[in-house]
Amino acid sequence: MRDLSDYSHPITDLFKQPQTKKEWEKYRLSQEQVDFFNENGYLAGIKLLDEEQIEMLKIALNEVADPKHPLHYLFHEFHSNESSDPSKVLFHSLGHWRIHPAFHDVIWNPAFLMASSQLLGGKSVRFWHDQLFCKPARHGGNVAWHQDYSYWTRTVKMQHLTCWCGLDDANEENGCLNYVPGSHKWGLLDKPALAGEMDGLKTMLSEEQLAAFQPVSVPLKAGYATFHHPLMVHGSFANSSLNARRAFVLNVFADGTVSDTDEPLLEGVPVIPKGEKMGGKFFPLIFRAD
Predict the structure, then answer these.
(1) Over 90: is that where the pLDDT of 1 sits?
(2) Coiled coil located at which positions (predicted)?
(3) Burial letters 35-64, b for 16+ CB under 10 A, else e
(4) What's the per-residue H, E or C state across the chain?
(5) 53, 54, 34: which is closest to 42 by C-alpha?
(6) What is d(CA 108, CA 285) in angstroms, rounded to the nearest whole number?
(7) What is the pTM for the complete model shown?
(8) pLDDT tens, position by position, 44-66
């Protein structure tokens, strides 16, 4: 039993690593996909996992979700239920990459790495932190409308990216992700309670923003991902269906991002003084751009 953050490289064969530039090229996004992301603030439908990888990650999720797991203390955050509604359940955690090899190695999934670098403008990529969001069948909770960077202002400059990948088929019935296209151009908004009232953010918007608030749902098959800009307004509704909705999230930023605080950036992580470059074993360089 060990802290897997000590390993800044894959430790299993779950994700085969390309050995040549040609092997990397098969994971490259098209220019049309990059343009869509830049215009709308998101890009959906990117396949990250095959069936074997999905099953391995489901097994890993069941293991790490147990509060009695012997490495439970390595989580940065762990909420068996973060929902503000006592009749709903939203499991949410940060730090499981330190605990299970499958969640550790998914960070080095070449399809994820290539897309991340491209959507960050061709830059080298550092890991920020992971998340799990799980909504059980029948009574899964919502995730309120929000912008990711409103919770991340302790790191600058803003050159971050989020990848959301489902371990179950996600649709409107079980609480798939929803985006407000173009909202990444609205600037930084105040942050609401992440698992609070769905529409808390809307009370902070201007009349013009409210008029442009036209969400689109993003249904995805298991193993497929969606990437979004750090200022993209997004959220997901409750799950009252008969099917669970389990997903993991990988958050990254471009190499060169620096700390903007003298407080710990994540629970259990040594302080990186304000103005110093993000790095070290907790924020490893995971993709080096040519």
Answers:
(1) no
(2) none
(3) ebbeebbbbbebebbeeebbebbbebbeeb
(4) CCCHHHCCCCCCCCCCCCCCHHHHHCCCCCHHHHHHHHHHCEEEEEECCCHHHHHHHHHHHHHHCCCCCCCHHHCCEEECCCCCCCCCECEEEECHHHCCHHHHHHHHCHHHHHHHHHHCCCCCEEEEEEEEEEECCCCECCEEEECHHHHCCCEECCCEEEEEEECCCECCCCCCEEECCCHHHCCCCCCCCCCCCCCHHHHHCCHHHHHCCCCEEECECCCEEEEECCCCCEEECCECCCCCEEEEEEEEEECCCEECCCCCCCCCCCCCCCCCECCCCCCCEEECCC
(5) 34
(6) 10
(7) 0.97
(8) 999 999 999 999 999 999 999 99
Q: What is the spatial distance between Cα 96 and Cα 92, in angstroms, rounded to a whole number? A: 11
| 200 in Cβ contact with 144 (< 8 Å) | yes
* Residues 147, 116: Cα–Cα separation, whole Å: 18
Structure confidence by residue, pLDDT tens digits, 98-145: 999 999 999 999 999 999 999 999 999 999 999 999 999 999 999 999
Size of the chain, expressed as the number of residues it contains: 290
Give the closest residue to 257 by CA, choosing from 129, 77, 132.
129
d(CA 49, CA 112): 10
Say which amino acid occupies 214.
Answer: Q
Q: How far apart are CA 85 and CA 64, in angstroms?
A: 24
Give CA–CA dist 222/240, Å, rounded.
19
d(CA 65, CA 79): 9
* Topology at the third CATH level for domain 41-66+76-287: Jelly Rolls (2.60.120)
> How far apart are the C-alpha atoms of 251 and 164, rounded to whole Å?
9
2, 6, 34, 208 from 74: Cα distances, Å: 10, 12, 36, 44
